[in-house]
Amino acid sequence: MTRSLLIQLALAASLCSAASAQSPASRQDQIDCRPDAMKFCASHVGKPDEMRSCLAQNKAKLSDACRKVVEARGG
Questions:
Q1: pLDDT tens, 1-46?
Q2: CA neighbor of 66 nearest in space, from 34, 24, 43
Q3: What is the rounded distance in angstroms from the CA atom of residue 59 to the CA atom of residue 3?
Q4: What pTM was estimated for this model as a whole?
Q5: d(CA 48, CA 44)
Q6: For 1, which of 7, 12, 29, 71 is 20 to 30 Å away at the CA?
């Protein structure tokens, strides 16, 4: 697998795991947040708690779609 694909898979897993306390992240949630997660929180891929925290800390910088996902998940 290419490095990019591995990163995308790890990111998807992180987003799913980060939301698991409430409900699984939908495919649309993952699509909405993937660019922002890679831009602001790439070092936290594969670390769900750190990813959730990073996205919440960067909420003001996130796209509207991802910000809504983060807020809906308590961030």
A1: 566 655 665 666 666 554 445 566 688 988 999 999 999 999 998 8
A2: 34
A3: 27
A4: 0.68
A5: 8
A6: 29
